[in-house]
């Protein structure tokens, strides 16, 4: 009897967690669609929303440029050795490495981890603070949508930042590989350029941009929704947990979308 | 005209606040100043006051700044225009919240628990009401325990809130 009750309890709590997660995901999708609508109509580019967008772009983008460049350089040097070694074994493997592993994997994921650790947790914290102070109630009393005033600019800034930083990192990688790989692998520069150009098609660039956009969207939408929905007390570690979970969710979305397409 | 309603029961006051929030959301003829609705932190007083006008009506920054300067001059508090809410004292925050509420010229302004927002200081309450523009209809909802603080303030009428609210709803044709 006791075992039966125990099993019932486990099933009940599992169901509860699953329902919470599904509701959370549904709300995130709602937030994403609403923010995308505002972003497409550009209706939020007025008054304070524009100030929020400018501030977020400065905070996420401009202030993180140096760290992106430094980490990009460190990553590029290690990648160059890897590519040079692979090029010596089999040139086809090098094209696969550059396309599938570096362009589609390491660069967007690296930038996303940087963004999540630095800004997703911060975004979660700031939205939670606004929520606990009751500032969203002020917005509702003034007939102002927080989606348009705060969330849509933050999400757009997140997407633009992740895309721009990933492009910067890809550019740094290409430049460093162009300098390093021919000397390490003992091949001519023309041959390596041919390998590099043959590994990347225009459709790959579109795919790369789509991955970065999804990452940027997930890294801002999930923390915002998590902070906006809950109103009880919280601790500092929770924000990092939410930020890392958003990477996990974005990777799932990318893999599912990749499998479907 | 200043109307006042003293409430005895705090639970009733909470339910009343919820009704008022709904009313304020539905109509732009009524605006609300409440301790539960603070100014937005990270936004200057100027932007806080003109938030609604810039957002909904698309007023130009030049015009909104001129209007805000005039409003703040009424309270002799022009020095707070570029300050952030966290750096203001209770009185300055309360005045900024009030100016935020009256900026779009509503028909009625409802102030909930002003004594609490002003830290129960009678002097500040009197100072605020002496500077307040007379033309607007202002409804104050206050705890009966704080009745003493309003001894020196001219209140035009003590109202029973619920019939008044119904008549206001009818006037604004909100069900």
Task: Write up what this structure looks like.
The complex is a heterodimer of chains A (261) and B (175). Chain A is an all-alpha fold and 261 residues long. Chain A has helices at residues 2-41, 48-60, 65-89, 91-133, 135-141, 146-185, 189-199, 202-229, 236-260. Chain A has 9 helices and no strands. The longest helix of chain A has 43 residues, at 91-133. The longest helix of chain B is centred in the N-terminal third of the chain and has 17 residues, at 10-26. Chain B is globular, with a radius of gyration of 16 Å. The model of chain B has no long low-confidence stretch (mean pLDDT 80). The two termini of chain B are 26 Å apart. By secondary structure, chain B is of the alpha/beta class. The interface between A and B is medium-sized, with 18 and 23 residues.
Key terms for this structure?
heterodimer, A: 261 residues, mainly alpha, 9 helices, 89% helix, B: 175 residues, 5 strands, globular
Average pLDDT over all residues of chain A: 82
Pairing-aware structural class of the strands and helices of chain B?
alpha/beta
| Helical coverage of chain A, percent range | over 70%
Task: Report the sheet-strand fraction of chain A.
Answer: under 5%
Number of beta strands of chain A: 0
Instruction: Please tell me what the overall shape of chain B is.
Output: globular
Q: Distance between termini of chain B?
A: 26 Å
- How would you spell out the order of helices and strands of chain B? EHEHHHHEHHEEH
Number of helices of chain A: 9
Number of strands of chain B: 5
Which structural class do the helices and strands of chain A define?
mainly alpha
Radius of gyration of chain A: 22 Å
Give the assembly state of these chains: heterodimer
């Amino acid at each position: 009897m006791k075992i039966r009750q125990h099993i019932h309890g486990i099933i009940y709590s599992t169901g509860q967690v699953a329902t919470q997660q599904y509701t959370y995901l549904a709300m995130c999708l709602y937030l994403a669609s609403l923010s995308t609508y505002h972003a497409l109509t550009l209706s939020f580019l007025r008054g304070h929303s524009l100030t929020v967008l400018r501030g977020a772009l400065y905070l996420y983008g401009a202030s993180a440029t140096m760290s992106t460049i430094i980490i990009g350089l460190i990553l590029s040097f290690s990648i160059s050795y890897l590519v040079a070694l692979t090029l010596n074994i089999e040139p086809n493997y090098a094209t696969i490495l550059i396309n599938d592993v570096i362009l589609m994997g390491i660069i967007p994921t690296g930038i996303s981890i940087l963004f999540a650790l630095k800004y997703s947790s911060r975004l979660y914290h700031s939205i939670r603070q606004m929520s606990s102070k009751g500032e969203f109630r002020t917005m509702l009393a003034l007939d102002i949508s927080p989606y348009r005033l705060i969330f849509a600019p933050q999400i757009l800034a997140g997407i633009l930042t992740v895309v721009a930083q990933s492009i910067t990192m890809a550019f740094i990688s290409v430049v460093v590989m162009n300098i390093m790989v021919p000397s390490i692998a003992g091949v001519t520069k023309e041959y390596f350029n041919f390998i590099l150009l043959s590994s990347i098609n225009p459709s790959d660039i579109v795919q790369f941009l789509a991955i970065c956009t999804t990452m940027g969207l997930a890294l801002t939408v999930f923390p915002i929704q998590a902070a906006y929905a809950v109103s009880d007390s919280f601790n500092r570690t929770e924000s990092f947990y939410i930020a890392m979970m958003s990477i996990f969710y974005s990777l799932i979305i990318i893999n599912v979308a990749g499998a479907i397409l | 005209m200043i109307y006042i309603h003293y409430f005895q029961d705090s639970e009733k006051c909470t339910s009343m606040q919820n009704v008022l929030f709904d009313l304020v959301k539905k109509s732009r003829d009524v605006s609300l100043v409440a301790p539960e609705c603070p100014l937005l932190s990270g936004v200057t007083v100027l932007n806080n006051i003109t938030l609604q006008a810039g957002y909904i009506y698309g007023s130009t920054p030049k015009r909104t700044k001129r209007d805000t300067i005039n409003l703040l001059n009424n309270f002799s508090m022009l020095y707070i225009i570029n300050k952030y809410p966290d750096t203001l004292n209770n009185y300055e925050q309360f005045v900024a919240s009030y100016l935020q509420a009256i900026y779009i010229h509503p028909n009625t302004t409802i102030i909930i628990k002003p004594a609490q927002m002003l830290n129960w200081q009678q002097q500040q309450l009197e100072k605020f009401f002496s500077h307040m523009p007379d033309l607007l209809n202002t409804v104050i909802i206050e705890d009966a325990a704080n009745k003493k603080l309003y001894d020196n303030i001219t209140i035009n009428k003590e109202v029973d809130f619920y019939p008044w609210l119904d008549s206001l709803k009818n006037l604004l044709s909100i069900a």
